[in-house]
Write a structure and sequence with these properties.
Elements: H1 2-31, H2 34-41, H3 43-46, H4 54-57, H5 67-70, H6 76-85, H7 101-111, H8 120-130, H9 132-135, H10 157-166, H11 182-195, H12 201-211, H13 239-248, H14 252-255, H15 257-260, H16 264-278
Helix pairs in contact: 1-2, 2-7, 6-7, 8-11, 10-11, 12-16, 13-16
Length: about 280
């Protein structure tokens, strides 16, 4: 009789816990409480504050990701896709069976409240270890493999993070999302962003007047020649093509040594000045 009585008590306790858990989950769903929904569906792996739990760190073949580190860099569309359909080959299973569309949006709203302070020292260290072989120690990509010059890139932080996570099809830039943690990706992205050269159109104007104005009174008076000139203007050329034309165009026979002495940063300044006429 005592055994039966204990079993009944144990069963009642289990039922009570199950009822309380389902009641909390139902309450979260009914109020679209993103925090409560996150804690009920995500926190066991990703931690209540978006940082990986001890359990999440031990998951195979890849540990859970730190949501806090990339919350401000990853789009809602990407978060929605990951939460809805999961990530193949990882422990991240689809949540479309436990959360409806509105609940998923509430979870994303909560994730978007997370902030992260990047560690530039770690970003520099990991950049040297993982990225410098193609992009160079200084980010200028003078390595001969055709990598993007990160000092002159126009990519924003979100684009840099996305490129690191998924790579660039058709290039040597492969996905780093399983090689680097979200913290590493955020730190490297912020470090790369700190390297960029902020071109100065005012300085570019001075350089243009010193080196170019003898033949071109203003950028508006520059005429393109050759097949590339057909129905195209300077505004149609990207920075790379403008750089090539400044360094190697037919005018070099006349500009000669003036062009040779210009640094890459000088040319970026000139291009920035030229853009004031073409934008």
């Amino acid at each position: 009789m005592r055994t039966i009585k204990f079993s009944n008590i144990a069963l009642a306790a289990v039922c009570a816990v199950a009822f309380l858990s389902s009641s909390m989950s139902a309450t979260a769903a009914n109020t679209l409480d993103g925090k409560a929904l996150y804690e009920a569906n995500c926190a066991v792996c990703h931690g209540k504050t978006g940082e990986v739990s001890d359990y999440g760190k031990k998951l195979k073949p890849f540990p859970a990701r730190n949501h806090r580190a990339i919350a401000q860099y990853v789009s809602r569309d990407e978060l929605r896709r990951i939460i809805t359909y999961g990530v193949k080959g990882t422990a991240m299973t689809p949540k479309k069976y436990s959360l409806d569309a509105l609940e998923i949006e509430a979870v994303i709203d909560y994730i978007k409240t997370f902030d992260y302070k990047p560690d530039l020292a770690n970003g520099k260290k990991r950049f040297k270890e993982v990225c410098s072989s193609c992009h160079g120690i200084d980010g200028r990509a003078v390595t001969g493999v055709g990598a993007k010059n990160l000092v002159y890139t126009k990519l924003g932080l979100k684009d840099i993070v996305h490129t690191m996570r998924y790579g660039r099809p058709g290039t040597l830039m492969t996905s780093k999302r399983h090689q680097l943690s979200n913290e590493d990706i955020a730190d490297i992205a912020n470090y790369v962003y700190s390297l960029r050269y902020m071109a100065n159109p005012a300085k570019g104007k001075q350089l243009f007047e010193q080196n170019c104005s003898k033949c071109h009174s203003t950028p508006a008076h520059i005429k393109l020649i050759g097949n590339a000139a057909a129905k195209r203007t300077i505004a149609d050329l990207d920075d790379r093509l403008l750089d090539l034309r400044i360094r190697h165009g037919r005018h070099v026979d006349r500009a000669g040594k003036k062009v040779e002495k210009l640094s890459s940063d000088d040319i970026q300044d000139i291009i920035a000045y030229m853009r004031t006429y073409t934008n």
